[in-house]
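Running log. JK asked me to keep both predictions on one page so they can be read side by side. First protein, sequence followed by its tokens:
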Amino acid sequence: MRIVGLDILRSIAILLVLIRHSELENTYVHKFGWLGVDLFFVISGFLVSGLLFSEYKKTQQVNIRRFLIRRGLKIYPSFYFFLIVNILINYFVQDIIPTIPRLLSELFYVQNYLPYIFTHTWSLAVEEHFYIILAITLFILWKYSLFSPKPRYIIYLGILLLTVYVLRMVLYTAHAPNFSLQHTHLRADGIIIGVLLAYLFYFTDYCIQLLKYKWILLPIALVLLIPGFIWHGGDALMITVGLALVNIGFGILVLLIIGSHQIRERKPSWRKALGFIGVHSYSIYLWHLTGYYFLLKVFHYNTYIMTGLYIISSLLVGIFFSLTIEKTFLKMREYSWVKNGIKRNFRIAILYESKFLIRNPDYSTTKSSPSCKNWNFVLTSTRSLLESVMVKISSTLVLL
């Protein structure tokens, strides 16, 4: 399900991040820009948990293997391609080789707790931890018949949200000089708010009910965002109180958007145009600092021109890799062996092969045997995928 309003919010979020990492300092937008990541967290919490909630609502079960495979095809290929390319760039351009611990922390998405290579990939680790914890939690609840859409889960999520607030406040007070906001257990409130919104959206009619008060909720949301424009990211008030208020404000904005979508109003084409950047925001986020590095090496203009060049180049590079790498692997999610789960598909292949050999004891395994056909399908699909990637990269370069 694609909600155009959320694509627009993601466009705003990635632009905030780009401005935060630009030289456009001493402006309100630059001061607020670091919170673009938290806006991503709220949106991601809603969309990703919504996939599982929607499946449960339709089938009364959850396929965790398929969920993790689909998430993996979205996240891993683009990230590991980015990782390899940037390691090669650092080696050939700056003669820098990352240490094994730093490389492993990036590979296994623990860079928000351990030494890292890149300064911005910590947020990917936060989301990855969320995907895994959410999938495992829902699977256990479903497996033992403990999950059913009841109001008590709203209370549980509220308690979890409050726990993050208290942890952040207590740990900041105790470790203020060395406090890090990049740890998952201290930055997960935005994601939890998104999960709570998804629960309300799929299992209750609260979203529609709350739309009756949208003209009250909208100004409240905007007021809650004010701390981000006033306090700096490292201020005690911003870390302990301001971030919590801003995330609630983001949550209300998402609520208003998904509530409007629930009514199924017609979406004008200009909204889709504004959301175009948001559709490609993941790859833009991955590559924006790499492009900025080369830009600073080549050009030396004033702050405003450099900021403009940086934003435009980041968008172009990110969209390019989104269309060539990310989109190609996303198509794999429609393959039957992905929809059914890879492990299940191979089990079926082994079962067919066993039955085939029992019925034909003198038959040797050849290309015509059932399992070989199954494996040939996977290999053919993989080869076609790689060819598609190369064709798309070539065609895009020609157009550029």
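And the second, directly underneath as requested:
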Amino acid sequence: MCNARHKYSVILMGFLSRLSGAIALASLPACSGDVNTNTSATGGAATGGTSSVERYTLTVSFAGSGAGTVVIQPGETICTAPASCTATFDSGTNVTLTAKPTNTGATVSSVMSGWTGACASDGPHRLCSLTISAATATTARFDTLSANLAFVTSTTFLGNLGSAAAYERQCNTLATAAGINNSTNDAYVSWMAASNYAPATLLGSTRGWVRLDLLPWIDDMTTALSTGAVYYPVAYDENGQRVIADTLSGMGGTGVLYNCNDWTDSTLNTTHGNTHAGGKWWIVNNVGISSCANASRVICLMKGANTPVTVTPVVGKKIYLTKTGWVPGGGLAAADAKCLADAPTSVRDVKAVLVASTRALADVLGTTTVYVRPDGVKVGTGSEIAEAMNTSPPSTIESAVTQDGGGNYVDTGVAQNLWTGLSSQGTPDKDTCRDWTTSASTDSGTIGGVATGWSYAGKDGSFGCDNNWLGSAIAFLQCAEQ
């Protein structure tokens, strides 16, 4: 129909030209999806040639029961949920979509939890970049929120903002900009310990925190602080961008505070946690203290709602820790037997995640097999876990294995290490306690960290095969169902 219109328009203009004795040039609007023929690249007079640019439509739709907008740029097209909208672009145009929840009440009731379609790979990240080369469609999901949000700041801070309350203000400023704050811009506290600022006390009866993708982080803070009961790591910043980084906390493993003199002095030291850590390492890890002059992120927790959160179990094979540390001796058979003795009741066939001259990771972890903790939290596929065991930080896994076979969350201040036998290349290292047959203190085995999920030798080094640290066996086994 559109081509026919152009055909007859050209005939008509030719007829009118003969009547007037002049040569007329005319242009007609291009039809959507057709070739747009321009007489000049700069919009001026024709220069004897034409250029053809295809134009395509971008469609933005919405899902979920929450409120929010998506702004399409260039052009500043504003789409408001739940109505779909469109914008048309020349082929090759770089387009940015910015999703933002709408929260205008006393509580935060909407959150942008993810995309489907063209932006699906961005997860809950509210910014999506596309290059238009065909008709394109994506859907932004805004969900209603009943639990509390937790996020890590997208920006870093030194340890001298003046007070813990100053970091709280930063949390709320960032939350407001991302559309996840309340109308008074004070829904969050910072997890920063100080002599006059106790975040656990400020949270009061608040219960139940989820990440930006709505996966559960912590149900009960008192339980998490005492037992390490953390589900998925906090992991995302206020914009939904996945972050693996250290965080300021000021908390020591024994309750001692190293907090830059109540966050006033950058020449001192502080303790820190990690955004991707499980157990108690989101508060403080065993790396020790670091300089207050090192810029780090801050964990921000919403306060107010008292809504228990639970895990929706992911289907997969179990992966877990032994209930106690393991002293090498007896080879791989002894390690596998220890894993079976400490297994969940449903597990009948299991291997220790150890390498030796006769065992590689591929002999234990199925490449595409999904592995889950006893609580149903997804850890990752075998290939993702294997990569994480050789990468710092372990960006490929969903969570660290911080539960034993009995379903207990391990105290990562005690169960800090895993026997692995890995070199930095994922192959058997010389440090395998002689293929796990000796417990001599003069021999050694390579170890990795429990709470972070990284397990290669280059991270935590080697440990004596007697597994004796001040009278305690602190190196455990990680076990995978077969």
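Observation for JK regarding the second prediction: The domain at 52-144 is CATH 3.10.20 (Ubiquitin-like (UB roll)).
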